Amino acid sequence: MTRYIIERIIAMFITLFIIVTIAFCVVRMMPGSVYDNPELPQSVIDALEAKAHLNEPLLVQYGYFLKGVILEGDWGTSVKIEPSVPAFDVLVKRIPVTLEINIYSLLISLPLGIIFGTIAALRKNKLADHLISVMVVICISVPSFVFASLLQYVLAFKLELFPIVYESTAVGVQRFASMALPIMALAFGPIATVTRYLRGELVETVNSEFMTLAKTKGLNQVQATVRHAFRNSCLPLTNVIIPMFTNVLGGSLVIERIFSIPGVGGIMINSINANDHPLTIAVLIFYSLVSLLTILIVDLSYGIIDPRIRLEAK
Amino acid sequence: MAEKNDIILEVKDLHVSFKSYAGYVRAVRGVNFTLHKGETIAIVGESGSGKSVSVKTIMGILSKNAVIDSGEVLYDGMDLTKVDEKVFHTLRGKRIGLIFQDPLSALNPIMKIGKQITEVLILEQKMNKEDAKKKAIELMRAVGIPQPEVRFDQYPFQFSGGMRQRIVIAIALASDPEILICDEPTTALDVTVQSRILELINKIKEERNLSVIFITHDLGVVANMADRVYVMYAGKVVEFGESEEIFFEPAHPYTWALLSSMPDLETKDEKLMAIPGTPPNMVYPPKGDAFAARNQYAMQIDFEEEPPFFKISDTHYAATWLLHPDAPETPMPEQLSQRIKRMKEEG
Ligand SMILES: Nc1ncnc2c1ncn2[C@@H]1O[C@H](COP(=O)(O)OP(=O)(O)OP(=O)(O)O)[C@@H](O)[C@H]1O
Ligand SMILES: [Mg+2]
Questions:
Q1: Which residues of A touch B (CB under 8 A)?
Q2: Torsion-angle region of B181 (φ positive above 0: left; ψ -120 to 50: alpha; else: beta)
Q3: ipTM score for this prediction
Q4: A140 to chain B, minimum CA–CA distance in Å?
Q5: Tens-place pLDDT, residues B222-235
Q6: What is the pTM of this model?
Q7: A172 domain residue, yes or no
Q8: Residue A274 lies inside a defined structural domain of this protein
């Protein structure tokens, strides 16, 4: 197991390195530069670019960048969005709210999805199953920003149940109320994904041979389902959590705009528009790191739940 | 043995169908058999003849699309086709145990072996954990698992196929059933493992005085296991009798065909007689004798009217028009009678 964990972590860093490299090259090769300002004399621009090593070949620039990140924890400095503030600090300020909203929406969608999926599977081809199916199709096919706008219009604007936008200064219940709508908007998709996936898995395991054995050895239907079908069906669920989480992150890029949330999503778009390359790269690294960590956590929990991996990868 | 009062399980005129997209599949179309206390009966027949469906009906584990059209399964004064799930639950495992066709997929892949044996003891028999574990280890030892204490905490993927089948047997024995149904318990295993599992079942049967229903399509296995044999074809029993009667005096052409298609040590040079054709489509079961289309001895009446059972001895019956007094004398195929002669000489 230890070896399995170490292997996973090493693999994660290699992947991260590759992603960072690609991100760096792509961003730096984008046309335009922050310093392209007609009001500045060319000599000043040249001096500024030289200071940021922009006049050197790409590979050398990358060397400087890596050196900064690895040796000094320096991710570069924002040049436009928050001039002269280290990109890392810009991020750190905004990460908590983004993560909070994403994680909450995942946390509510897992149990709900599991409940709906179980109901649908056990009531297969009955009314409840059909209703849930319709719900799933709607939730999967409608993008989260549509839900966000609808929720904002109906629940916040018309019914005034929730604040229309995020209130970063509010505390306690108030703050939570202002986060409720974005969380909900982001949760519909994942709920539907989990529901659909679990229903499929459960329907299959319920008909498996070991379920029949569980029954013939004398367990009743509930015991057999809970002890044998359910746990086995949740195992492959870990597979959908990865794409789900990255989807939610992607969705929150837009959601953060709709609800004016000062999260990471906003600066991603702004920094690209503003040619604030160090910041763009930092944001990209953040997103890749979060995705890779999700994959790592899922892989590890897979190893814990599934004895075949846990024991064979000693 | 054949006294009326020691009958432990009786299946009477059972009809079971499945609703499917292809139509109404008539899987079992009138099966009768009796199981006496301490006896082993074998049910043999080609794939799809309805063997598993018959025993699944006995266990009450038919799939949702199954319909029991008619018939009775009599056990302990109850008709198991009519009892509700609550009552059935008190019988399954505890009174009637089942060993499965496929040991490789019958165990839950992510639950420890020990737990799969003990869970029913703990949940249903209210044993405490230590006692259940002790009993499980005893059972594992009884079915021939070496180092049961170590194996107790392992997972199915760490077991070989033969060992998994032993575990499935141990699970079936955990609640001390009086009837053990073995649905092709060795088909998925290689020959040496197969014979060891069969020995094991025989031994356990003696020790615990079990009544056994043994399902197989391997007649060679039957010879070692069964007191009596039921031959099934297309959802019906076509011949039944004591083992010797079925092996030495088979009367139904289908039994002839089955016996001829069975390999044995002597038949190295002889050509094995594969049964020509395929079993009928059970959505449209044929009129008359279902085997007629594949039967080289079929007569006109075989295609028109279903044969009743003709008595050959007190214990031996066969449903074929060949036994009708007006039928022309039809001996069994030469090759088969040669073979039977040889088997008799060897004893
Ligand atoms: N769930 C089901 N739905 C539809 N048809 C079924 C179902 N289960 C069994 N059948 C049909 O019932 C018939 C008898 O099947 P059964 O499983 O009893 O055969 P079997 O004699 O046990 O064969 P084998 O030796 O291959 O195990 C087959 O024609 C099969 O297709
Ligand atoms: Mg079968």
A1: 207-210, 212-221, 223, 227-228, 231-232, 235, 305-308, 311-312
A2: beta
A3: 0.81
A4: 30
A5: 888 899 999 999 99
A6: 0.79
A7: yes
A8: no
